[in-house]
Structures are given as structure tokens and as C-alpha cells.
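Re: the request from the purification team.
They wanted to know what the chain is likely to look like in 3D before they choose a buffer screen. I agreed to run a prediction and write the result into the notebook, where they can find it.
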Amino acid sequence: MPRNNSLNTGQGTSGGSNGLVRWTFAAADSVNGSPIIDANGGVYVGANDGYLYAIDSSGTAKWKFFTGSGQQGLSPSASIGPDGTIYAIGVGYSSGFSGLQSVMYAVRPNGTQKWMAVTEQSAGAPAVGANGIIYLAGYDTNSQGHTLTAVNSDGTARWAFWLGSGASDGIDSTPAIGVDGTIYAATANHLVAINSNGSLKWSTAIPSSGSSPAIGPDGGIYLGSKDGNLYAVNPDGTIRWAFQTSGAIVSSPAVGSNGFILVGSLDGSLYEVTSFGGQEWSFSTGNPILSSPSIGSDGTTYVASGLASNSGTLFAVNPFGAKAWKVPIGTGAIVSSPAIGSDGTIYIGSADDNLYAIGTQVNTVSISQVAVQPASVVGGNDAVGTVTLDSPAPSGGDVVTLAANDGSTVVPALITIKPGALSASFSISTNPVAVTTVSKISATSGGFTVSYSFVVQPPSLTGISITPASILGGAPTTGTVTLSGPAASKGVVVQLSSKNPAVTIPASVIVTAGSSSATFPIATSAVNQQNSVGVTASLAGVTFSASLTLNPATVNALTLDSGSVAGGASVIGTVSLNGQAGQGGVNVVLQSSSVVVSVPSSVVVAQGSVSANFTLTTTSVQSQILATISATAGGVSKYATLTVSPLALNSITLNPTSIAGSLSATGTVVLTGPAPSTGAVVKLSSSSSVVSVPASVKVAAGSSSASFTAKTIAVSSAKTIAIKATFGSIPQTGTLTVNPPVLQSIGFSPSTVVGGKPVVGSIGLATPAPPGGIVVKIACSSPYVKFSSSVLVPAGRTTGTFAVKTLTVTTPTTTTWTATLGGVTKAGQLILNPRT
């Protein structure tokens, strides 16, 4: 049974462990399960690889049984029945079942499966009664709730008690079984008592946290809580008392034969509490306690503590609360609880993947020799040591104590030589060193000590490399120096050098502590021919070199600012390199496939530049010509094509495109290229006499455009006139819109008169009136004026007048006038004053 009995008291029937590690057994993963011990001294423990391991009392594996728990990173929990059957709970995705399940396996002492049954998802070990009935608690995926289940020894279900469907109704600890058969189980919020027939006896609200209940000699039930209290509950379910600690209690209490309770807290202390709830003493372990204590027959309490970042430790605390001894048990949080064997040996699992057996040490055999292979290593590397005895180890085995005299070498504190064996090997790890160090490794047994001188060397330079090792001059790259092992705490300085001025590197590079390599930057300069440059690294008289190839820049691209021109036009070409030009620049050779296109024989990309421009000139052609242009440097050529077409009229434009009649516009004809030496005559024509243009316009030699004047006459309505330009066989047309005159103003002279006197009004146009003149409508709503409703502006004139007869007024009167033409309205005022 876990916790030594079905009462979960943690009280052992033996004691006297002297705190010396007798042996360790290595599993494949953390040993977080709590060991259980059968009547023959065999030990069973679960590890996070999902296996239940069986080990004999000398530390030799008998068998291992896979439970599936490793799929969830859990150690299988187990209990032993009265007939020696081991009941193990595995949590995982079991073969033949869908979804996450718990499976309870009944395993014979020889490691073979007796039966298996899918159970509720359970995290605690099952409890086994004296009658062989197994009790376990967990989550039932079928009923979607938490239950406490009783299972017969043949695997058949006996009964199940429904605890509830809420998260707080779950149980992840081991039930306790009272002497009267009552089963006690702790949910997240209650302690429940179930009769042996599966009916509820009582339920008491207590905020538990994974702690299993323990039953004292007087029938009282003790339970740790996440609120930091140790609760004592009477057999009728009433709370007797609560003892407060400074941290949550997640482990299970132990109850000694004297009725005192031992409990560990996350505050790092082990407390002994009397049956009346008073503190007897406390003992600080220095780390939170996740493991449940066990009590030896001599009253010594064994408890483990540790965090993931600290070393785990098993403490032996005497009945008065003082430390008897402590033993380091790996690094990491210790959740396994100690179990006490019949000979007093303490068994406990550790996060370092080992099961520890701590008991009477046997080391009466003297040592013949200590050997190490290899005899010398670079710091940071491992070696293997072997201890050989003068005679075979006795039946209990022999524990040899190991030590190293300096920090360069790390050896285990002890090793166990199996009964009847002459030797055992142990691992040696080393730390980086700055100088050659001779470490003395000592092995002690039977009162004899034998030593071995083991040499730890500083790292040496093993090479230098450059990646990439071939680059374009001017581009950066990276070098790497490599040592034979990791550098010591102050690092290792490697000297660097290069004799070529085209390469710039630091004088040295530091390989930092713990590293066996370091990188450094390499800067380069542009070159005009391929160079092979050596880079050297040196350390302690050892030199290595690496070669770096610097390549000159070559032509990367050839582009033209226009891919098609008319004969006679020029084009700008650009050659681009794939890197900067080196000293003296890069000469790029140019060629054209046609005499129509002329290029310079070469163009120089200046030092430090990546491109250069050049001019391509063309001649007039009668038909379209396609020319190929090439640029070559460094054995690489790039190409571009240029289409040369005959000269043609490209467009005709007028500015402005819309004007008032009688005004002039400027026309422009544009050719597809420059005119030849004799010029180019473009014929012109107008579709209407409203716009007159010259018969032709000449584009001067070398120019690609020419302008002309388009004259217009006045019109009474808007007219759009087409202007055609013809050169060769291709005409182009532009349009000019000629608009009628635009009304500009209406006014009077004088603008202020005495009522009763006549006045002359005037209409102003922006441009002259067309032939026949143009009529402007006028209006005024005042009753003191008489006038004609329209005015004729004569042809060719920009003004027209009209007569206004005024009437007398008694007060100053302002009359408002409007004139309208072609949708445009202008306003004016005439002021009438009374006679004086």
C-alpha cells in the first residue's frame, strides 16, 4: 500500500537508516511516483516514461510494465493487494479505447498482466482493503462526473458513488480506509465518508488540494488544505480543529503511533502537531515540501523538499525536531514520497530519473585501482572512470565514495558495486579550464583510498573557416574560429591577421565562456581582377589559415531609356555592375549590331561606382530597323535592343483648345524624332473658315517640333473646328473650340442722376461681336426707369449702348439692372436722386 498502510498514516514498521546512499536505479524519465514495497522487499515505482518498474533490494531491475501514463508526462501510481498483486493506474490514450482514459492494470509479482479495466480518469493511487477490494476516485467520462469506485479483485465493478459533475467535485488523491471499512476521500472542497456498501455516510466542507486523508489511532481523520491548514475531523464528520501553517499543504500528513501528526507545507517547514492541534515543533527544509513524510519505527521522520531550479534533498528529522542527516537526491522538485523497507532502507524517486535507496552502507572491501578513459580531455568533455575492488563485493554490495580535488572535474558522490562484482564504472564531467589542470580523483572503500591523476586540458585552436569563401570584392563575409572544447570563464582570445589590404578584419576575436567557436566580420574592397586572400588565426603557437576569393565586378545589366526611337534621335544607355568598380574603374566594351545606331567603343564605370551612362545616336531610316547593343566586362556580356523607325508625325496640339472668336491659338506639331538636315515640312488645313492656319509649318533641322498660329473670327455660337496636320502618309488631327463673345459688364454714365433726366447705359463684351452683331437682353424691375429690353452690339464692336428715361423720385433710389448673353448674366446699378 502507498503510505505504508490502508490508513494512509505513513508510519513504517522499521527504521534506523543512516543516510548513506546504498544504490540508485536509473529509469528513462523523472521518477515522480511514490515507491511501494512488497513483503519480500521488492520495490515498485512509476516513472514519467509511463513504466512501472520492479527492482529488487540490491537495486537490480526485475521487470518493467508499460501503463501508458508517459503519453501525458505522468508517473503511474500503484498499490499492492493482500495477495501481492500490484494495481497500477495509467493515464493516456490506451490501445482499443477512444479518447483519454485511465486504465487500471492488475500485475502479478512476476510482471505479467492479470487483467486490465478502463476506469475513471484518476491521478491518485488506488487504495486496497484487507478484503482485496480496490477503491479509486476520478472522473467518469461516460457519466461526465466524478465518482468513487469500488472494484473487486477480479476487475469487476462493485459499486460507484457519484460525487458531482463540477470541477470542485474531483478527487486526485488516494482514499483512506478506516478499520470499520469506511472509505474517506477528499474532493477539492469536501471530505466525504462512504460506507463499505457505497452509500454516503457524511460530507464535510474542507478546501483540499491533492492531500490524501490519514486516519489516526483514535479514528480521527487528518487532511491538508490549500488554505494552509491541517484539519482534524472527528469520525462523525465534525471538524475537531485546524492548525495553520504559512503555506498551502499539497502533500499528505503522516500519523505516528503516538497519535502525533507530521505534515509538510509549501512554506518549506515540516510540522509536528499533537492530537489536540498544538504545535510540538517545526523543522525548516529551505524549500517547498511537495512530498508526503514517512515515519520510522524509531520515531524518525523522513521528508523531501526541492524546487525545479534547486537540488532535491531528503531529510531525516529526529523525534525532537532536529536534523539527523540529509542526503541530496538530484535536482528538481521532489513529488515522490519516501517508503520505508523492512530493513530500514528509505526508497524515494527523484526528478533526476533515479530511484534512491538510502540505508545501511556496505563498504568493507578495499580498492585495487581507479582508472579513467581517456586519461586526458579538453575541459567541457566527459570521461568514464572505473573502480576495481581487491575482491568481489559482498552480498549487500559495496558503496564507494568518490571525490575530485578541484572544480575542473565533477564525479558522483558515490557509486554502488553490485554484489559479487569486482568493479563499476562512473561518469566524469569536466568544466572548461584556461590552463592545463591535473585533477586528483579519489575513491574510498573499506578504509582505503586510491587516487588517479586526471588531466583536463584548455581548448586548442582546431580551425578557421570563411562563409561564403568566394565573394564579390567590396561585399562582407564572416569568418569562424573553432576550438577543441568550450572556453573557460574568461573566454579565449584568438589572434587574427591578413596581409592583403583588400581585406579588413579585427586583430582578434574572443570565444566566450562556454562556447567552442566564435565568428568575426570580414570587410573587403572592390578589385579589378580575381584575388585569393589568406586569413590566419593563431592561438598558443597553433596557426590555421583559410582562403577567401575576391572577384571583380562584372556587367549585371544594360538598359536604355527608350526601347524605340525615330531615326535621327538619341538614346541614353546605362551599364550596371554587380558591385562597385575597383581602383581605376571598370572599362565596359560597347557594340552595336547596326550602322544605324552608333555607340562609343567603351564606357568606364568610375572607381567606387556601380553604373555609368553613354549616348546612342541614330540616323534616318526609310524602314524600321532592330539593333542589338552589347556591353561586356569581366567576360560577362549583357544585351539590349533598340528599334529605329522612320520619321513620322506624332501629334498636333492647340493651346488653348478653347478660345473666344477673333482670338488666336498656338498650334504645335510633334515628330517622332528630330528633323533631318533639310528640315521637315508639315502640311496644315482647317475644316472651317472660322479658323485659319498657314498651309504648312517647317520643323527645323534637329528639332522634333514646330509651332504655328491659328487665327479665329467672331462667332455667334460655339463651334469646334478640326485642324489637320499631314507629314508623309500619316495625318494627325487636333481640335479648337471657338466660342461666341462673353458678356463682360453692364454700366451707366453717369451712374448717379437726378430723377427725370435721361441716362445712357452700356454693354461690354470680352471680344468683338460677330458679323451682324449680337443682341444682349437687359432687365430692371424699378418703376422709375423706362428702357428697351434688348441692346444690339454692332459687328466688330465690343460695346453697345442703350437709352434710359428716368422718372422723378422723392428719395434717393437705387435701381438694379441685369444683362444676359449666352447664359452669362452681369449686374449693374443706377442711382436716382430727388430734385433739390
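For the purification team: Residues 94-98 have pLDDT under 50 and may be disordered.
Please add any questions underneath this entry.
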